[in-house]
Design goal:
Blueprint (H helix, E strand, L loop, with lengths): L5 E5 L6 H8 L6 E3 L2 E3 L13 E3 L2 H9 L3 E7 L2 E6 H9 L3 E5 L2 H10 L4 E6 L3 H11 L4 H15 L7 E4 L3 H16 L2 H4 L5
Parallel strand pairs: 1-7, 1-8, 2-7, 3-4, 8-9
Antiparallel strand pairs: 3-6, 5-6
The structure holds guanosine-5'-monophosphate.
The site of guanosine-5'-monophosphate has 15 residues, from β5, β6 and α4.
Length: 196
């Protein structure tokens, strides 16, 4: 059986990555969402083991020491990381895996796994991004400013991405992401067995 594909879905905070993935994940078979670990406090409604594994800083640092992360990054004062074990288990079973991570981590994964597809999700405009961040109502002014600054840096790195998904309408953006995943499933490497 051929291995699954790894998709790194990234983009500025407020671009709607979570919303788009919320449409795509339940609509496709054999697609695994990688649950990250973080030291950030849970937001209202977030569940441990579902949205994130919420860890204390010492626990997170211990996992780094054990080499348990495929990548990890510090983002606006908290640590975030992708546990490597479940990702490889799923890929080896032939499932596709989606990581929803910020850009630093995305570039680390792309370096380690050049075959991974890097998808950058953007909102229609920068002012739209600011609006979306504010309307969440979960972030302080300082955090919003930091997140916007990050977004500017991330836009500079466009040459490193494989695909750009435009999130002007969620359903359209979800279609674009599904198309990217479906196309990769038709690649010769994945289908060569059908010719034997
Ligand atoms: P939030 O605090 O809004 O949930 O996430 C902040 C940023 O961290 C988002 O851009 C999110 O995609 C990213 N993120 C979530 N999990 C990971 C991870 O495991 N690794 C990295 N590098 N970034 C992550």
């Amino acid at each position: 059986m051929s291995k699954g594909n790894l998709f790194i879905v990234t983009g500025p905070s407020g671009a709607g990555k979570g919303t788009v993935l919320g449409r795509v994940m339940p609509s496709m078979e054999d697609l695994h969402y990688s649950v990250s670990a973080t030291t950030r406090a849970p937001r209202e409604g977030e569940e441990d083991g579902v949205n994130y594994y919420f860890l204390r800083k010492e626990q997170f640092l211990e996992m780094i020491g054990q080499g348990a992360f495929l990548e990890h990054a510090e983002y606006v004062g908290n640590y975030y990381g992708t546990p490597a074990g479940p990702v490889d288990e799923c890929l080896n079973k032939g499932m596709d895996v989606v990581l929803e991570i910020e850009v630093q981590g995305a570039l680390i994964v792309k370096q380690k796994r050049p075959e991974a597809k890097l998808v950058f999700i953007i909102p229609p405009s920068f002012s739209d991004l600011e609006l979306r961040l504010r309307s969440r109502g979960t972030e302080t002014e300082e955090t919003i400013a930091k997140r916007l600054e990050k977004a500017r840096e991330e836009y500079q790195m466009a040459d490193q991405y494989d695909y750009i998904v435009l999130n002007d309408k969620v359903e359209k953006a979800a279609d674009e992401l599904r198309a990217i995943i479906l196309a990769s499933r038709c690649a010769v490497g994945r289908r060569i067995n059908l010719l034997r």
